[in-house]
């Protein structure tokens, strides 16, 4: 049995994330998606529990995916869930440098390898930061996020 960890802030989860989770669910026996509190990203729109719940609702159709919320090092989460690998999605070449640096650091301190999954061109431009900004100003993001996320964004910014 192989288990993979997909960590991220997922604030909020979007269709690019769901694509990576879907691909991972076909490659690995078990997928654990971890909504993490990332102090480097500052204040979040949704707290960890809200993000984990949106993830659960968005991947409920995938039977081998489990969602957890954590506030600690990714490698500690990987150890806690028994992950054989960590996966990271790549949208563009610019993502590769920082993700590779993290992958090397994670390997050095834990022995867990990272597998990169490139996103489809249709999702390569989608970023949670942009989703938040568009939604905040009343823009339509329904084509870029799962329905549970669109609903929560609409509720958050209802006038």
Automatic annotation (TrEMBL):
<dbReference type="GO" id="GO:0005524">
    <property type="term" value="F:ATP binding"/>
</dbReference>
<keyword id="KW-0067">ATP-binding</keyword>
<feature type="binding site">
    <location>
        <position position="74"/>
    </location>
    <ligand>
        <name>substrate</name>
    </ligand>
</feature>
<dbReference type="InterPro" id="IPR014729">
    <property type="entry name" value="Rossmann-like_a/b/a_fold"/>
</dbReference>
<keyword id="KW-0548">Nucleotidyltransferase</keyword>
<feature type="binding site">
    <location>
        <position position="17"/>
    </location>
    <ligand>
        <name>ATP</name>
    </ligand>
</feature>
<dbReference type="InterPro" id="IPR004821">
    <property type="entry name" value="Cyt_trans-like"/>
</dbReference>
<feature type="binding site">
    <location>
        <begin position="123"/>
        <end position="129"/>
    </location>
    <ligand>
        <name>ATP</name>
    </ligand>
</feature>
<feature type="binding site">
    <location>
        <position position="41"/>
    </location>
    <ligand>
        <name>substrate</name>
    </ligand>
</feature>
<feature type="binding site">
    <location>
        <position position="88"/>
    </location>
    <ligand>
        <name>substrate</name>
    </ligand>
</feature>
<dbReference type="GO" id="GO:0015937">
    <property type="term" value="P:coenzyme A biosynthetic process"/>
</dbReference>
<feature type="binding site">
    <location>
        <begin position="9"/>
        <end position="10"/>
    </location>
    <ligand>
        <name>ATP</name>
    </ligand>
</feature>
<keyword id="KW-0460">Magnesium</keyword>
<feature type="binding site">
    <location>
        <position position="99"/>
    </location>
    <ligand>
        <name>ATP</name>
    </ligand>
</feature>
<keyword id="KW-0173">Coenzyme A biosynthesis</keyword>
<comment type="similarity">
    <text>Belongs to the bacterial CoaD family.</text>
</comment>
<keyword id="KW-0963">Cytoplasm</keyword>
<protein>
    <recommendedName>
        <fullName>Phosphopantetheine adenylyltransferase</fullName>
        <ecNumber>2.7.7.3</ecNumber>
    </recommendedName>
</protein>
<comment type="subunit">
    <text>Homohexamer.</text>
</comment>
<feature type="domain" description="Cytidyltransferase-like">
    <location>
        <begin position="5"/>
        <end position="133"/>
    </location>
</feature>
<feature type="site" description="Transition state stabilizer">
    <location>
        <position position="17"/>
    </location>
</feature>
<keyword id="KW-0808">Transferase</keyword>
<comment type="function">
    <text>Reversibly transfers an adenylyl group from ATP to 4'-phosphopantetheine, yielding dephospho-CoA (dPCoA) and pyrophosphate.</text>
</comment>
<dbReference type="Pfam" id="PF01467">
    <property type="entry name" value="CTP_transf_like"/>
</dbReference>
<feature type="binding site">
    <location>
        <begin position="89"/>
        <end position="91"/>
    </location>
    <ligand>
        <name>ATP</name>
    </ligand>
</feature>
<feature type="binding site">
    <location>
        <position position="9"/>
    </location>
    <ligand>
        <name>substrate</name>
    </ligand>
</feature>
<dbReference type="GO" id="GO:0005737">
    <property type="term" value="C:cytoplasm"/>
</dbReference>
<dbReference type="InterPro" id="IPR001980">
    <property type="entry name" value="PPAT"/>
</dbReference>
<keyword id="KW-0547">Nucleotide-binding</keyword>
<dbReference type="GO" id="GO:0004595">
    <property type="term" value="F:pantetheine-phosphate adenylyltransferase activity"/>
</dbReference>
<comment type="pathway">
    <text>Cofactor biosynthesis; coenzyme A biosynthesis; CoA from (R)-pantothenate: step 4/5.</text>
</comment>
